[in-house]
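In response to the reviewer comment on reproducibility (Comment 2.3), we provide here a single inverse folding case reported in full, input and output, so that an independent group could reproduce the run without further information from us. The C-alpha cells appear first.
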C-alpha cells in the first residue's frame, strides 16, 4: 500500500499559478529555482506555514526538492509575465484521459 492509502499523507490540489508562486518565493528565499514538479509540494508547505503563523501553532514542515528549474525558465517567464492560466478539467475529461492510460500489471 502507498502512503496515501495508509493515511500517512493527505492529497491536496494546487493550481499552476499557486505552484509557480511558491517556486518563485522559494527561489527568492533559498536561491534555488525549483523544477515545476516539486512546486506543488512547496505550495502546500507555504499554505501550511502561513496557517501556523496565523494560529501560532509551532510545527516542523518537511518536504523534498528534486531537480532544478533551469530548463523550465520559459515557464517561469510565462508565470512572471502573467501569461500562465489555470485550467480545470471536467470529470468527463479526466475520465477520458484516464481511459487512455496504458494498463500496467500490478
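Designed residues, in position order:
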Amino acid at each position: 500500500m502507498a502512503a496515501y492509502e495508509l493515511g500517512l499523507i493527505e492529497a491536496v490540489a494546487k493550481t499552476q499559478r499557486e505552484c509557480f508562486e511558491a517556486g518563485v518565493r522559494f527561489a527568492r528565499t533559498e536561491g534555488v529555482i525549483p523544477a515545476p514538479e516539486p512546486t506543488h509540494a512547496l505550495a502546500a508547505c507555504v499554505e501550511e506555514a502561513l496557517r501556523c503563523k496565523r494560529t501560532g501553532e509551532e510545527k516542523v514542515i518537511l518536504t523534498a526538492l528534486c531537480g532544478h528549474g533551469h530548463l523550465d525558465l520559459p515557464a517561469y517567464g510565462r508565470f512572471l509575465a502573467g501569461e500562465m492560466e489555470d485550467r480545470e478539467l471536467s470529470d468527463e475529461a479526466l475520465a477520458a484521459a484516464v481511459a487512455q492510460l496504458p494498463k500496467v500489471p500490478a
